[in-house]
Amino acid sequence: MTNEELSDQFRKFFQLPSSPVAVKISEEGLDGPRPESSSRFCDFVRTVAYEGKKLVITEDDLSNFTAAVILGFTEPKYVDISPRIKPAKTKSIELTPLEESEGEPDVIVTITNPARMMEIVQILHQTTKKRLESSMTCAGSAIAGEATALPYMDGSSNLTLLCGGARTIGGYQEEELAIGIPFSTFAELAGSLTEPSLTDALCGCLMDDIPDHVEETFADMGFESGTDHFFGEFEDKTLRFYVDKDEKGTLSIMTVHYPLKLASEEQARTAKKIAEGLLAGRGMAITRENWLDLVLKTTFDRGLEKEALDKKEFQKNLSQIFSDFVKISDKVKEEASN
User: Fold this and answer.
1) Which of 142, 164, 194 represents a domain boundary (last residue)?
2) Which InterPro entries match (predicted)?
């Protein structure tokens, strides 16, 4: 896949308003547009992510000496700093919206909110089969150190809650955080989003694509709307569901999700086998440590837009679907525990 395809797939899947930023560390002077004035590295990264501007950064462009050390432009003078790129041979850093980048960058930095980050980490775990163990102090230069230098040096993804400078000077909002992912890992993650076992579990239309009367029907049943899904309580279970269009463009597909917690990873594997038998081709079961993600897929032949015109009957049908799903989850847990 091209970098443009990777970016497009990643952004659509996680509904990201900003671009993943491709970071290329170079021991040579790279050609490209330079910043108009010096600033912090975190500011440059956010500008590229949200404004789509490509930038080539040198040491002279950085207003923060600590970031220059962390990014490998210069060696520390008095005490060592960690993490940092070493030895200090960096001459320039190219920051590009991933969709506009060429070749293989070193690290991909993504800025988003906690809800989206949760989903990114979930898919990252399913892709790599490894837990994300982040290293952070949030003490300063977090984008440079925790989201860039550490993934570059260690070859592992790292999540950061940012630092005071990023929020007060770099323009990062209270609800934003960032993750740095080595490009090879990012490419594997973004490429995996085409797999049905992942896309069926986390796929839905944006709320703007859903007719008001359909959304109102869900709201009357106690389900709130997120960016691309609905969530709420049903029979003491917190359910999340997505609605999507079929190949004809009709809003006819509903995917219901419930995370079931088991006592152990072994019990989760047992529960998966039980669930697959009970779902019988109508959904899937995905294990992640001692959790089992239960997914039920339902298709409305007439489309949700028409079904919802008879509000009372539509809510009755939805209640039956949710009730059957809850019974399956209860039966799975009961049988797996015995």
Assistant:
1) 194
2) DUF169 (IPR003748)
In single-letter form, the type of residue at position 265 comes to E
pLDDT in tens, the chain (338 residues): 899 999 988 988 887 888 999 999 999 999 999 999 999 999 999 999 999 899 999 999 999 999 999 999 999 988 899 999 999 999 999 999 999 999 999 999 999 999 889 989 988 988 888 899 999 999 999 999 999 999 999 999 999 999 999 999 998 999 999 999 999 999 999 988 764 454 444 555 555 678 899 999 999 999 988 766 788 899 988 898 988 887 788 899 899 988 888 999 899 999 999 998 998 778 888 887 788 889 898 999 999 999 999 999 999 999 999 999 999 999 999 999 98
Cis bond leading into 182, ω under 30°?
Answer: no
Residue 245 sits in the same domain as residue 317: yes
Q: Identify the CATH number of the domain in which residue 225 sits.
A: 3.30.1460.10
